[in-house]
UniProtKB/TrEMBL annotation:
Localization in the cell: Cytoplasm; Endoplasmic reticulum membrane; Nucleus inner membrane
Biased composition (Basic residues): 76-97
Protein name stated in the entry: Delta(14)-sterol reductase LBR
Source organism, top-level taxon: Eukaryota
PROSITE patterns: STEROL_REDUCT_1, STEROL_REDUCT_2
Species annotation: Certhia familiaris
Keyword annotations: Cholesterol biosynthesis, Cholesterol metabolism, Cytoplasm, DNA-binding, Endoplasmic reticulum, Lipid biosynthesis, Lipid metabolism, Membrane, Nucleus, Oxidoreductase, Phosphoprotein, Receptor, Steroid biosynthesis, Steroid metabolism, Sterol biosynthesis, Sterol metabolism, Transmembrane, Transmembrane helix
Signal peptide: none
Main location: cytoplasm
Catalytic reaction equation(s): 4,4-dimethyl-5alpha-cholesta-8,24-dien-3beta-ol + NADP(+) = 4,4-dimethyl-5alpha-cholesta-8,14,24-trien-3beta-ol + NADPH + H(+); 5alpha-cholest-8,14-dien-3beta-ol + NADPH + H(+) = 5alpha-cholest-8-en-3beta-ol + NADP(+); 4,4-dimethyl-8,14-cholestadien-3beta-ol + NADPH + H(+) = 4,4-dimethyl-5alpha-cholest-8-en-3beta-ol + NADP(+)
Amino acid composition bias (Low complexity), ranges on this chain: 66-75
Region annotation Disordered: where it falls in the sequence: 53-111
Similarity field: Belongs to the ERG4/ERG24 family.
Pathway in which this enzyme or protein is active: Steroid biosynthesis; cholesterol biosynthesis
């Protein structure tokens, strides 16, 4: 028997998930492992359907014609057979046939009356239905923009079937006996649905990112090498690109005491994470419809960490120990992240299929190890990915900057830190505090909703963020730069502009997602999509598609400017960050096009620039 029934490119009828409605779709591909067809609807939406949810167009047409013609023929043949088999009882048979015919006509008349009455009442309640409402009910995006934010709430709350049922119950023309039978049938159907839920089959990752298996294999070695190269360069008197640093002795890269301090830091943040303070919120729905709970207490963890650092300074503990053993701390963090990545991959092999990451389920060991095989690995209620995203690395970044500030004062015999060091510490402290204060917003990012927790995020959170993002402060310790107050004021103004764009754009997006009917957002226009969400086309999101990325890049430039222009090394962060955000924008563009279909194409026509206005 053939392994598949429908060929690529074939036009068939596909059932819309969660309904009994079928629409014309085109088969684009077939997954032999999961036995799922990838189909494309007319509005551009691509979904994976089982073979049982797909039917040929010819069968639909045949059934339609059959239903319109077969019923009278069956009734006529039944009557003729009844007369031929029962010649002795023609009158009784005719009386029964006439009675049934009258009952059938009465039932049909009652049904027509009830339907008309229900439609009349619904029209009075909801007003005249429009073409756009019909399209939205059928899963098609509207063709016009809207600025009436209340329509989204209406779309989410409106339940046509329940409304019709309520009206029919209130104005029913049927007998109580018929209603009781209908309730019993409905009760049995609901019980059956509760016993046998809809089965959701996961799909394999087809499109490999980051260069596929070869690219991810190289990145596993390239990322640690880049970190160690940057730190060695900062230690040199002449950190020019052509002046390659000498390789250190391997024995000098490892220190058991340093590794113990790193473990103490990691588990201290874990203790702060587990404290029962802060509110508990739900994340976005998973593939199985379940929502995970997250405790929002990152800002409290930062306050407790600041108090602990204050106690250490009061006890005259030398924090510049971090500067003296900076390379060893980086090696310890890299070793820990590698061990954590191995543990995450091993435990993901036993994870249920519905808990695997949509972007890390390729079946290739290296690729899944790098991108993350499991989406939300948890030990009880302790979410490993969510914890590492904001706690050890991000808060550790601020602590490292403070240690560099103290090291600069001690090495150069300064009573106060340099103006350049103050600017770098202040700008980056603001960025970290903002991220922790708005911790809930991270639950909608690609890192949480799409990417699994593997080497990429583990190394990025625990090594790349604290040791690369603090590169400017580390550079200034060995290469002090003197800047004037007017220059400092100009750099501060540039950082404020970037921060304003970054924060206001993110707040605009988060507020719209949380409450589209907020009167404060009534002036915003959006393009409705088949998913029920809207794409903003005014405000910051009508300026460029990713205004938050634009603000991020402006701030990154402001962080590097206090280091002067003697070397390009302190500008590595802004160069890397532009490459990172351009790549992330391309990934986001691809996902949004698959998710929103034609609505995303209309959005791109309305907002043509991705990050940089009139440039890119």
């Amino acid at each position: 028997m053939p392994s598949r029934k429908f060929a690529d490119g074939e036009v068939v009828m596909g059932r819309w998930p969660g309904s009994v409605l079928y629409y014309e779709v085109q088969v684009t591909s077939y997954d032999d492992v999961a036995h799922l067809y990838t189909v494309k609807y007319k509005d551009g939406t691509e979904l994976a359907l089982k073979e049982s949810d797909i039917r040929s167009q010819s069968s639909f047409k045949h059934r339609k014609s059959q239903s319109s013609s077969s019923s009278p023929s069956r009734r006529s043949s039944s009557r003729s057979r009844s007369r031929s088999r029962s010649p002795g009882r023609p009158a009784k048979g005719r009386r029964r046939s006439a009675s049934q015919s009258r009952e059938h006509k009465d039932d049909k008349k009652k049904t027509i009356q009830e339907t008309s009455l229900a439609l009349l009442v619904l029209v009075l309640f909801a007003g005249k239905p429009s073409e756009n409402n019909t399209k939205r009910y059928n899963g098609e995006p509207e063709s016009t923009e809207k600025n009436d934010t209340s329509c989204i709430m209406l779309e989410q709350k409106l339940k046509p079937d329940l409304e019709i049922k309520r009206v029919l119950e209130q104005y029913s023309l049927r007998s109580r006996k018929d209603d009781k039978k209908k309730e019993e049938i409905y009760s049995e159907k609901k019980t059956f649905m509760a016993v046998k839920p809809i089965e959701k089959v996961p799909t394999k990752t087809k499109e490999l990112e980051f260069g596929g298996r070869i690219g991810t294999f190289m990145l596993i070695f390239f990322l640690p090498a880049t970190v160690f190269y940057l730190l060695l360069m900062c230690k040199q008197d002449d950190p020019s690109l052509l002046n390659f640093p000498p390789l250190p002795v391997l024995e000098s890269l490892w220190d058991g005491r340093v590794f113990g301090v790193f473990l103490l830091w990691f588990f201290l943040q874990a203790v702060f994470y587990l404290l029962p303070i802060g509110k508990v919120v739900e994340g976005l729905p998973l593939s199985n419809g379940r929502k995970l709970q997250y405790r929002i207490n990152g800002f409290y963890a930062f306050i407790l960490t600041a108090a602990a650092i204050g106690v250490l300074l009061y006890l005259q503990v030398e924090l510049h120990y971090l500067y003296d053993h900076f390379m060893q701390f980086a090696v310890s963090a890299a070793a820990f992240s590698l061990a954590l990545s191995i543990y995450l991959y091993v435990r993901s092999l036993k994870a249920p299929e519905e808990e695997l990451a949509p972007g890390g389920n390729s079946g290739y060991f290296i690729y899944d190890f790098f991108t993350g095989h499991e989406l939300n690995p948890r030990i009880g209620s302790f979410d490993l990915k969510y914890f590492c995203e904001l706690r050890p690395g991000l808060i550790g970044w601020v602590v490292i900057n403070l240690a560099m500030l103290l090291a600069e004062m001690k090495i150069h015999n300064l009573s106060v830190p340099s103006l350049s060091m103050i600017l770098v510490n202040s700008f980056q402290l603001l960025y970290v505090v903002d991220a922790l204060w708005n911790e809930e917003a991270i639950l909608t990012t690609m890192d949480i909703t799409h990417d699994g927790f593997g080497f990429m995020l583990a190394f990025g959170d625990l090594v790349w963020v604290p040791f690369v993002y603090s590169l400017q402060a580390f550079y200034l310790v060995g290469h002090p730069i003197t800047i004037t107050w007017p220059v400092a004021a100009a750099i501060t103004a540039l950082n404020c502009v970037g921060y304003y764009i970054f924060r206001s754009a993110n707040s605009q997006k988060n507020n719209f997602r949380r409450n589209p009917a907020d009167p404060k957002l009534a002036n915003l226009k959006f393009i409705p999509t088949a998913t029920g969400k809207g794409l903003l086309v005014t405000g910051w999101w009508g300026f460029v598609r990713h205004p938050n990325y634009l603000g991020d890049i402006i701030m990154a430039l402001a962080w590097s400017l206090p280091c002067g222009f003697n070397h390009i090394l302190p500008y590595f962060y802004v160069i890397y960050f532009i490459c990172l955000l351009v790549h992330r924008e391309a990934r986001d563009e691809h996902h949004c096009k698959q998710k929103y279909g034609l609505a995303w194409e209309r959005y791109c026509q309305r907002v043509p620039y991705r990050i940089f206005p009139y440039i890119y």
